[in-house]
């Protein structure tokens, strides 16, 4: 029987009750207004030029063939689906497109919070503590979200975490023969647009089935990633070499600096190890029946092994923390989100490079603690995961 999802605000003061009821409007303002104000005052957005330049190439207005884009411009470190998704906005006049891009990326914040709220509540109704956790945590996430939306303008990161939240909710509430494969295609597409998102693929193993079937879904997601890139590789065989040869320098504020790699291009082993760690930790989370930890452990592993330390990275870290907070049944509240944002924002600005680099590893340490901690803090869904694939219904 379907249960109406609603907030139960009767125990809240009237002003707070009204705020909770309008929480997604509040989060929409939190997600969009700071970014739009930044655009108004600064007059430019970070990496949006890569999307505009790629859009010209993809529609045949550039100086190279569309399928030779990455071979000719390896600094375009944005995957094909992300470029295609942003194409309509990138082709708008230069005076308009940044405003539209910032507003749309900002709007992903309330969407993610809505999906987290639905996924985090297994009972079919949202109580006041869950709603307050999502509202308070979303406001903390907004501390970094404007950097993702406007300061650096990376819609592919927003799409990746949104896809993770959507699939996480599906895995807890919906069954069907084809839904896990649809989820694999969705996460594979997200990973083709943003490489670190390949770590999210183990989420599709959350659905019931034999170990071989679950592994097959993960592999299918990986094949989707390959399918997106294959036309570019076949048309321009130098694409792989060009992208592999483009390596940025390691910042002194990066955790890699702690092992003596600062000031030089990162070694070839860094990206494979980064992806392997993301995949391994997410797979462990799903295997332990704690798939809600996957987004957090993946983004935590990403920043712990990244050669740079751009602030927009921490928008996805904070959102991963909010997923954890929303699933907690004890000590309810956005505590992990708040602490992580404060540590990564305030402490980093007050510290030197080595301390900042060490602090960037803190989310990974927290993620590992959560992975090995007992499962009692999570709403029990074990009976669902014990079902065999023969019990799956239709979508």
Task: Give a structural overview.
- This protein has 395 residues and is mainly alpha-helical.
- It has one domain.
- It contains 18 helices and no strands.
- It is globular.
- The protein starts with 13 loop residues before the first helix and ends in a 9-residue tail after the last helix.
Order of helices and strands: HHHHHHHHHHHHHHHHHH
Low-confidence stretches: 1-5, 376-395
The portion of residues forming beta strands comes to under 5%
- The geometry reads as globular
* Rg value: 21 Å
Instruction: Quote the average pLDDT.
Output: 88
Enumerate how many helices there are, as a single number: 18
Largest sheet geometry: none
Q: Summarize this, please?
A:
This is Dolichyl-phosphate-mannose-protein mannosyltransferase. The protein is an all-alpha fold and 395 residues long.
Key terms:
mainly alpha; Dolichyl-phosphate-mannose-protein mannosyltransferase; transmembrane; membrane; globular; 18 helices; transmembrane helix; disordered N terminus; 395 residues; disordered C terminus
List the SSEs and their pairings.
Elements: H1 14-21, H2 23-42, H3 48-58, H4 69-72, H5 80-90, H6 97-120, H7 128-151, H8 155-173, H9 179-193, H10 211-235, H11 239-245, H12 270-287, H13 294-304, H14 313-327, H15 335-349, H16 353-359, H17 362-372, H18 382-386
